[in-house]
Amino acid sequence: MFSTKIAEGPHWYNSFIFNKKKSFSFSVFWWIVILIIALYLFIQITQFMKTDLYFELIEHTKTLLNQ
Length: 67
Known about the structure:
It is a single chain. By secondary structure, this protein is an all-alpha fold. The protein has a domain at 21-66. 66% of the residues lie in helices and 0% in strands. The protein is built from 3 helices and no strands. The chain is elongated, with a radius of gyration of 21 Å. The protein starts with 13 loop residues before the first helix and ends with a helix.
């Protein structure tokens, strides 16, 4: 029988890995959902940084901060 010692450790990250109130598969599901959302936002931000609007915002911000 497989047993894990994660729940018995004193580390701060133990509750993220092994939460007694939720099942392991439920936690893995939500971590995957969060990672997919983070990847989607990262891709959208990098695409926005390639637009002319982004460069105009940077120029206007520099102009406002220099005054």
